[in-house]
Amino acid sequence: MSRRVQLVLVCFTLVLTMPLMAQTHVSLPLGDPVYHILEVAELRGLCDPLPKAKPYSRSVAISAAEKILSSRSSLRFGGLSDKEYQLLEKFLEPYGKADAGFDRWKGTYRFENAAEGKIHLSAEMGAKNETSVSGAYYFQQDEAVFGEEWWFTPYVVGDLGNFFSWGFILNGGILYSPREQVGIFQTYHSEFGEGHDNYINREMIAYSQPLAHFPYSYQKRWDGFVWNYRDISNSGQLGWPEGLCIGYSMLPEIGGSLFDGIFTMRGGRMFREWGAMSEGSSLILNQSAQPFLGLEATVSPFKWLGFSTITGILEYYDEAGIIDSPSTNQNAFSLSMVEINYKNYFHFDFGSAAVWPKRFELGYIFPLTSNFFYQNNIGDFDNMSLFFDIKGQYPGLANLWLSFYLDEINPELDIFEMDRSMFAFQVGSTAQIPLLPFASITLSYTKVEPYCYTHTRQILPWYGENLMEQAYTNNGEGLGYYLPPNSDEILVRFKTLLSAYTTAHFQYQMIRHGAEYGSAAVDGSSYLSELDPSGRSTKAILRKDFLHDGAYQWMHIIKAGAEHSISSDDGKRTPLQVFFEAGVVLSYFTKGNGNSLSIIDTDEYPKSNGLLLTVGFKIYP
User: Fold this and answer.
1) Where are the domains of the chain?
2) What span is annotated as the signal peptide, if there is one (predicted)?
3) pTM given for the model
4) At what angle do helices 58-70 and 82-91 cross, to 10 degrees?
5) Which of 79, 113, 490, 522 is deepest in the core (most CB within 10 A)?
6) For 77-99, how does the pLDDT look when each residue is reduced to its tens digit (9 = 90+)?
């Protein structure tokens, strides 16, 4: 063995055996109630500003929770009440390390080797179950629809030394989520005929939102495709579970932290959210996006400065089979973000992202290279974007933020009139609600312009004659905000912890979206829309007029829900959790007539008002 190899092994062993308390560095899944607690705590000044690259590792979440508990009486506003202190202590009990051997309350078996002089190793195995049934009744159609999901999730996680952790989650599910075809749309606007040169117009099927779920709330949990339960073979592969189907997903992960948390790294396939000023608000990488395998790192040399970067491989949507579908969809994704904080009063982040057809492209992989400007060095083949978020807050009271995502723009044109201006923006505010434990209310307005997140298909030098997809999507779903192009939204959301075992929420949304299909379709309203390349700087065509240039669907969504963990007679949390969400959806279409709008109700664009309900339970949540 060479001296160089010996030196590397010695350094590696020293790192793994440094006498620090072992912590786990695998991620805490998005949607966990801890994220709401951390968001409210940051708003109230109970902890330092946290990175805007999520998910957090379990060690980061636990460290922040300890900071919250220690700052209960040190603040003029927003300090923990005695009730909140006791509630939080009890709430965090399940997040501690499981006992060695079998722990029946957590459903885990844990092995740990922490003997003196040995590298610290641990492994924890367990399994979870989540079952839900959803239903909706639509009055105009006099129709009831139902959906269901059952997921069984075995997992194994562990530590390798004090600074590295690993994990593997396997999900197997039986699921059914009905939707319906609502029409046909063209990827280019009809006035441009069959396209130009290498740009080819396509006719595509437009689908409704999943009928048994609230609009824009359903998240796919399967990898690639599902199988018809009667045919587990290549011929039974489907892109969507419109009948009873079987699906699976795998979420592997390796993560680590060095230099007392200043540098963290992770490789894995998981749900992520970057640059969100509130849960689910990100315009650049939203938690509604599908997971992808990526390598990421975050460096926080000072409390006021942070840098995060990720590069990963995006996945195709199985619409035409496992060979034809990916033949035109072979993309990678890179994102870099700089964060600046002034205590808990001010936050600013900015960065760039790129969806780029796969090849050995070092510039997008190298973290200190600007994705946006690097394209100038290698040619105009990729889908680039810029973004920034700015937030000010008074700890203990409220915050106010502005988020901006820039896809493409020509500053010489009227950005609010020309389709060439492809961007999204959001303004919002979150305030704490006194007297209720960890309660907050969020109000936001989001606008996604036509053609934002889309990209014209191109013939690329390294992919033959195929027109390659480069829209800002992964596995058929948007990477950015959960609304498609040519949409806006008013959102009001309330969340609180009613007890250590119960969380509750209420939400109102007004969503307006241009019709993708039909006789009054609005161009640029789908992720698959393509902006005609020959008229991008021509003022006479390619104009937009929100709500007045075609048919628009209006949706008013009101819903409330709760999660409750069953407790035993002695007050101990049991492995069973129940949840529900119920509400109404009022949907109709309008069409512009000069400066006025009129409601239309046709077979093509019908009214649809419904009641929706989801109930379910989790075992070992």
Assistant:
1) 1-23+103-177+214-260
2) 1-22
3) 0.92
4) 160
5) 522
6) 567 888 888 888 888 877 777 77
